[in-house]
Amino acid sequence: MKCTFCAADTRVVDKRAANDGRVTRRRRECQKCEKRFTTYERVETQPVIVVKKDGRREPFDRNKLRTGLMKACEKRPIGQDIIEKTVNDIEDALRRKDAVEIKGNLIGNMVMRKLRRIDNVAYIRYASVYQEYEDITSFEEELKRLKNTKGT
Fold first, then answer.
1. In this prediction, what percent of the chain has a pLDDT beyond 70?
2. 80-105 pLDDT, tens per residue?
3. Is 84 buried (19+), middle (13-18) or exposed (0-12) by CB count in 10 A?
4. Dist. CA 61–CA 18, nearest whole Å
5. Could you state, in order of their start, the residue ranges of all structural domains in the chain?
6. Residue 121 contacts by C-beta under 8 Å, 6 or more apart in sequence?
7. What is the pTM of this model?
């Protein structure tokens, strides 16, 4: 691989598995300028297309999923490692479906199930956006459902 700074050849100085073995992380050093940088290698797979509510189609974007989770978990005691594991779990589940097109509501429901187990406040935050509550009554009904399932 060429150096990102001077385009000379590089060598690998450290290699390890990342993201539960799904990614290979390599620390590289330039043989000319001696600067270091990190590269990540992951298996290239068939792109998953998300079919939105309005029929639009767009490629699955793990960064968009991560951003949504981070917004829901903002100022909550949830580490970045848990968010990253959730993103990986959802992406893996989508790829195992062996379908090129996935409905967006399937992804939203997967996120809600995961957040419900992780943190109630993050779940409600995500649900309030995802479910598009029309008024306070529908929001209260969701809170009641959450209370009832936690109490059993």
1. 98
2. 999 999 999 999 899 888 788 999 99
3. middle
4. 19
5. 10-42, 49-139
6. 76
7. 0.66
